[in-house]
Amino acid sequence: MRHCSVQVRGLLTREELDRYNALIEVGSYLEDQTRYDLAYNIQKEIDILILPAIERLKDKGRARDRATAEYLESLRDGDEDDEDEEAEGKNTSD
User: Fold this and answer.
1) Which residues of 1-94 form beta strands (DSSP E)?
2) Which end of the chain is more exposed for a tag (fewer CB within 10 A), N or C?
3) How many CB atoms lie under 10 A from the CB of residue 23?
4) Do the Cβ atoms of 24 and 49 come closer than 8 Å?
């Protein structure tokens, strides 16, 4: 059985995680019994089960990217303000 990433598992709800663990256990048992035809169906169920957690991970990444962009924009605005203040200071001393 293929496990999902730790990041995805961390975003599963308690109910989803319990179901995930049960499916992994059943799938592993089926593989031990060389019933790969049935284990395949279990793996498909796991893949469907983790889709909401994958979307939550993507949303988290998008939010992080937005926050980073806002932070960089604030730094850029701060630099422009500093340059404007320096230019004004030079003009008044002339």
Assistant:
1) none
2) C
3) 16
4) no
